[in-house]
Amino acid sequence: AQSVTQLDSQVPVFEEAPVELRCNYSSSVSVYLFWYVQYPNQGLQLLLKYLSGSTLVESINGFEAEFNKSQTSFHLRKPSVHISDTAEYFCAVSEPSEGSQGNLIFGKGTKLSVKP
Amino acid sequence: EPEVTQTPSHQVTQMGQEVILRCVPISNHLYFYWYRQILGQKVEFLVSFYNNEISEKSEIFDDQFSVERPDGSNFTLKIRSTKLEDSAMYFCASRGTGNYNEQFFGPGTRLTVL
Fold first, then answer.
1. Residues of chain B with C-beta less than 8 angstroms from the C-beta of A89
2. Where are the beta strands (DSSP E) in chain A?
3. pLDDT category, B99, cuts 50, 70, 90?
4. Element (H, E) at B32
5. Would you kindly state where each structural domain of chain A is located, as residue ranges?
6. Would the CB atoms of A102 and B100 count as touching at under 8 Å?
7. What integer best gives the mean pLDDT of chain A?
8. For chain B, which has fewer Cβ within 10 Å, the N-terminal or C-terminal residue?
9. B91–A101 C-beta distance less than 8 A
10. Does the distance separating the beta carbons of A104 and B105 come in below 8 Å?
11. Closest Cα to residue B93, out of A69, A96, A90?
12. Phi and psi for B54 in degrees, rounded to 5?
């Protein structure tokens, strides 16, 4: 069975500092990997995804994540955060098998708090 | 930009009562999902729905739960007899055709069972 572990429940950082939000997964099959972000009082929004190909994927707002198969990780990074990045970040996996409906298995989430 | 909407944003109910949570998926999407998040815990998959029937469900989705697409636009989750442990944030999601396309999530309904 698939599972996702986000080791850090809360990450406080100062504005313009770098940040890394950790995500590890376990699965007996290959997986697709996702990062979703939830801003206060809003729904989950897809930030970036890894399906295949280059192991480094980027979002339009400066976040990137690298798929590391040997370490079964998909950590999210940003070199310089802004106040507006304050949100909760969820790592998720789905199984790319024929017939799968693409159900997502989520981690517990990491609350990123950016301070001025 | 099209979005998934959910109503109500917050529902308070007494234990044992029936609740219906409503979702309007994006209009040309064909796959629909319900997830829930108990406070402080993971977002958990409940059920997926395609072609007017349940395609997958988790062990959480027992006989107390049901889903329906009554009119081609709404997608509802019914809990027949609520329990205290049903208190959670419930998220609806939808996606278009083609595997592994992005799931679009609604803002959620917070269900509080007293």
1. none
2. 3-5, 10-14, 19-21, 24-26, 32-38, 44-50, 56-58, 64-68, 73-78, 87-94, 105-106, 110-115
3. low
4. strand B31-37
5. 3-115
6. yes
7. 90
8. N
9. no
10. no
11. A90
12. -70, 130
* The two three-digit tokens of residue B76, written as one number: 């509802």
Which homologous superfamily is A3-115 in? Answer: Immunoglobulins (2.60.40.10)
Residue-wise pLDDT tens digits, B50-91:
889 999 999 999 999 999 998 878 999 999 999 999 999 999
Residue B34's Cβ-side half-sphere holds a number of Cα atoms within 13 Å equal to 30
Over residues A72-104, the pLDDT tens digits come to: 999 999 999 999 999 999 999 987 755 566 789
Interface test mutation site (partner A, options B10, B37, B100, B102, max chain A beta carbons within 10 A) = B100
Q: Which residue has the tokens 């399906």?
A: A51
Does the B5-94+105-109 domain belong in CATH 3.10.310.10? no
Q: Residue A27 burial (CB < 10 Å; 0-12/13-18/19+)? A: middle
